[in-house]
Amino acid sequence: MSTVPTNDTVLTGITTTGTPHLGNYVGAIRPAIAASQDTNVDAYYFLADFHALIKCQDPAKVHESTREIAATWLALGLNTDNVVFYRQSDIPQIPQLTWFLNCVAAKGLMNRAHAYKDSVQKNLDAGDDTDFGITMGLFSYPVLMAADILMFNGTKVPVGRDQIQHIEMARDIAQRFNHIYGQHFALPEAVVDDHVAVLQGLDGRKMSKSYGNTIPLFLPEKKLKKHINKIKTNLLEPGEPKDPDTSTVFQIWRAFATEEQTAYMRKEFENGVAWGEAKKQLFELINEELREPREHYNELMENPAHIEQVLREGAEKARAYSVPFMEKLNKAVGLYSLV
Ligand code: TRP
């Protein structure tokens, strides 16, 4: 008997660690929010706060990050009528399903996970024991992620390239479960958008928290300006033509500009615009796009009760699916009433 729905369900998780930066915005948040306007797809977006515990064991930080990230998505106009927006930890069926999946997932499959292998390699390079500092949380991260996806029969999973392997593992685990217990899960597919920009950071490398080169998304105007002024440039003087295609200033410009604005800035570079002037214009362009959401963000941060309310409503919608589905799965594996 097949219980697998045929329509596509878009599902993606946002790990609640750290403060969102311009790279997150351009690469993931902005396209996902644009997609949330589409009323024709079933979509689930959630705050992956169980995942946060793997990377961060500072309770205050985990808590604060959840508030910041929820406020960010709401401030930027996530349409919570079209998208089920919830907190992973509000769905007890997810850790329940994680256990079921743990019991069918091959340990050998998990041994091949990039994140785990990187940690092992770092240990070996440092002359430490293979498993030094590696928790079961890190090791079974892909199983929790599989549960996130399979719980709601997610079929299209928008992620960054680094997450493709995890989606493949979720497929493997789903197939294994289906093989043993019957067709319960649709097989998820990663959706990687090659058109969105991978933003460069202050030093010209990929903008990333781990490089410490980010521009946080909702900085106050003055600080935003300061950060933009810190973007690395070369020593060319005003009046000397500059190469847009190797410039971080231009690269970030393009991520916020219309086509005409991009063509205009390209001309400015050819005409030898001063770096200070180009940065001033870049600030204005970014600030124009972020000014209103920033105000909304600040209001939301002052009103966590509203955020909480939205998340609870989302969790209720999510549980309307996960509770009955989990009952079915409990039956499937042999856990049900004796009478
Ligand atoms: N691991 C993902 C990341 O770091 C976040 C995530 C958790 C996720 N669960 C998910 C993404 C389920 C997609 C589907 O980006």
Describe this protein's structure:
- There is one protein chain.
- The chain has 339 residues and is mainly alpha-helical.
- The chain has 2 domains: 9-105 and 140-198 and 303-333, HUPs (Rossmann fold, 3-Layer(aba) Sandwich); 218-298, Orthogonal Bundle (Tyrosyl-Transfer RNA Synthetase), CATH 1.10.240.
- The chain has helices spanning 22-35, 49-55, 59-75, 93-102, 107-111, 114-125, 136-139, 141-151, 164-181, 221-229, 248-256, 259-270, 275-302, 304-333; strands spanning 9-15, 42-48, 83-87, 156-158, 189-191.
- Tryptophan binds next to strand 1 and helix 8.
The SSE order reads: EHEHHEHHHHHEHEHHHHH
Number of helices: 14
Give the oligomeric state.
single chain
Strand elements, count: 5
